[in-house]
Amino acid sequence: MSNTTGAEKQTLLPATTAGAAAALLVVGLAGMACAAALEYGRGDQWRYFLHSYLVNFCFFTSLSLGALFFVLLQHVARAGWSVTVRRLAELLAANVVVMLVLFVPLAASVLAGQGTLYPWAAPHTAAADHAIEQKQAYLNPTFFVVRSVGYLVVWWLTARYLLRLSLRQDESHDAALTLSMERFSPLALILLVVTLTFASFDWLMSLWPHWWSTIFGVYYLAGAAVGFVALLIIFTVLLERAGPLTDQVTAEHYHDLGKLLLAGVAFWGYVAFSQYLLIWYANIPEETAWYQPRHGGPWGWMSLGLLAGHLALPLVGLLSRWPKRNRLSLTFWAVWLLVMHWIDLYWSVMPAYDPHQPPWALSDAFCLVGMGGVYLGALIWRCRGRSLVPLGDPRRQEALDFENY
Amino acid sequence: MDAHAHEHPNSSPPVAGLLAQFASPEALRAAAAAVRAAGWTRWDVHSPFPIHGIDRAMGLRPSPLPWLVLGAAVVGVVLALAMQLWMNGIDYPLIISGKPLLSLPTSVPIMFELGVLLAAIAAFVGAIALGGLPLYGHPVFFSSRFSRASTDGFFIFLAADDQRFEPISAQALLRSAGAVSVETLQVDEASGRVPGGLYWILATAVVLALLPPVLVTWYRTGPKSNPRIHLIQDMDFQEKYRPQSASPLFADGRATRPTVPETIPQGRLQADEHLYTGKVAEQWVTTFPMQPTAAMMERGRERYGIFCTTCHGLVGEGGVSGITSARAVKRREPNWVLPLSLHTQSVREQPVGQLFHTITHGVRTMPALGAQIPAEDRWAIVLYVRALQRSQNATLDDVPEPIRSQLRPVSP
């Protein structure tokens, strides 16, 4: 690119959008306050609020984790095609630091020792239940909080390192930085998958302290990958229209992002079914306990809805070439799958609150808007003054010239 | 120009086409666009690697391969489902692990695998077939330059069977499109023809390949005096210890292990003397260890029908009333002893404990059935035998009052 300074200016967020960060933060805090106010009247020691909060906490964390996974994967594979959309993923991944702040209510509830969210956190539950008592060495409030903070810090530092090197490259155009990131990524990828697995065990699986599934971490990772790629597609379409990504992405990039989305859908379906089939086939009470409430009644319908909406329909819808290259149809499926990913997490968490039927409440919407506002507000704040395309990456021209065979 | 085309205007063999070499992928792409614009249909490009946009430059339509692959995948999925439904649900219904006969989740892995397998085969075979392969020979291979098509050469071949083919104008077209060299290729009759021997080899291979399935089918359909062919030896003849065989592993050389002394296997403790032996203090018991019920009588009737009727007959009169006994007599089996009637005085006077003992351990030529029939079921059979005995030796007092009037005297 001959006119580098011009390109740099073009790839910044428009000034009007940058101003929206504060507004989003205000909306987010207001939404959270509304949800808390609504839930205060329920008088259940915040039991419902915490479950609803956990759904959204896991949802927004997964978006950052999917982004971190994506960035590491691009470096491990030495991918050239994805350079122009990689900065968005780097910024999204670094945004995981917000979740460190948003983890405070969860930590407080666990440390309070009431067992309102996690049954094992209450001393009397553990004392009465031999299996939980035996797991106290791992499942105890202090260790839980230490671990959770540890995961979030590891992710934040990993993402921050990658973002810093990438930003430094914007100035220096130094190809050695790319090599540094490529050397760093394989180990970081292993660390990410291990921490992500244990995070899903701690945050989601320990809602049923008797139940275990070794593939559960992969299930959460698959959902995170789908959610993140969907969000990346939505952001790319919006930013291409708004300016920063104009002339940076082509139908070829959408085609490849669509392929990743399709792969994520198949990955999620494969893992979800692998987990289900073994447990269903062995039919051992202690293993089927997790699926039992999800097998009939309203939760059963939601399970079938996920089978159709999170697997069958997008698999067929994204299979052909044109829906992946067409911005409108790809955006449709991205929005669809982002919603499905949220429902998947709702379906993972909420039967712990009510095993009979989905306990929808108005505060769910406020909680989603609240946490979404904070997350997006912080993200836009993070984008301020930074190029949304890694202008100094030596493979940028390759990404611009990229064509699918 | 080093176009060393073999020009033999009078006696030359027919022309197969023109081969033009280009310097770079970009030149090849531009030339392909020019050839396409000139309206050619019978032509192709050759390059060491795929070139972006060459399909658009050549005006190739999208390949039908994806549809072939999708079709094969769908066929695989449906075939796998139908196969499992037929085998597990209809042809040989077998309940495994308490799952339904027609169960979708258990079928999914096979549906997935067969779908992937057929899709992969369709992609592999389809790509080869759509590319016009296998092809025994092609005129371009008679060009010495063409070997560079796998390293750094970029070529266009115009076939002579195109309607537009005319040597002079075609040469001009290629040169104006930027060809580095243009070569006229002749049809080589001798080396372009598939040797006849190849067909014979193929035919022999097909016949040989068909022999095993034909032999297996022949052996498996209808009775044969020789044992059938064992295709999978280690499934038909498994390496395992059979009862009473020897094993060098143990000091006593026996493969069958006796129970560890002074132990009783789980669930085999038989502490209840009454229930398990029919004796109390070395005396036959005269009562049942459990309260007889209508359900127990019904169970006894069913078990008696399964284990006893083949010899003793449906009502227990022995002799040839059971089908095994009848057949043995019909075949004049020399050692066959007729089973006793259960209605003789001596059997009727036996205490229930002794009847139970007889079923458990057998008596004279009657085999022991204690291993096959659980103790509770043996008691149920004893109860039913008692009912049979009473039915065959009933008095008028056994007939309920209301229906006595319906009885008619039997003429002697």
Give the key terms.
heterodimer; A: 405 residues; mainly alpha; globular; disordered N terminus; B: 412 residues; alpha+beta; Cytochrome Bc1 Complex, Chain D, domain 2; 3 domains; four-stranded antiparallel β-sheet; two-stranded antiparallel ribbon; 15 helices
Tell me about this structure:
The complex is a heterodimer of chains A (405) and B (412). Chain A has 405 residues and is mainly α. Chain A has one domain. Chain A contains 18 helices and no strands. Chain A has helices at 4-10, 15-40, 47-76, 83-94, 97-102, 104-111, 123-128, 130-134, 141-172, 175-203, 216-242, 251-282, 285-288, 297-317, 322-325, 327-349, 362-383, 396-401. Chain B folds into three domains: 15-63 and 134-192, no CATH class; 69-130; 273-394, Orthogonal Bundle (Cytochrome Bc1 Complex, Chain D, domain 2), CATH 1.10.760. In chain B, strand 5 and strand 6 (283-284) form a beta hairpin. The termini of chain B are far apart. The model of chain B is unreliable at 1-9 (pLDDT under 50). The chains are: A mainly alpha (405), B alpha+beta (412). Chain A binds chain B through residues 273, 276-277, 280-281, 283, 319-321, 403, 405, and chain B through 50, 52-53, 66, 70, 97-99, 105-106, 108-109.
Lateral strand order in the biggest sheet of chain B: 2-3-1-4
Strand tally of chain A is 0
| Estimated helix fraction of chain B | 40-55%
Q: Please identify, by name, the CATH architecture of the largest domain in chain B.
A: Orthogonal Bundle
CATH topology of the largest domain in chain B: Cytochrome Bc1 Complex, Chain D, domain 2
- Per DSSP, what share of the residues of chain B sits in E-state strands of 2 or more residues? 5-15%
Structural classification of chain A = mainly alpha
| Shape assignment of chain B | rod-shaped
Count of discrete structural domains of chain A: 1
Mean pLDDT of chain B: 88
Total of helices of chain B: 15
Label the structural class of chain B.
Answer: alpha+beta
Number of helices of chain A: 18
Question: Oligomeric state of the chains?
Answer: heterodimer
Strand content of chain A: under 5%
* N-to-C order of helices and strands of chain A: HHHHHHHHHHHHHHHHHH
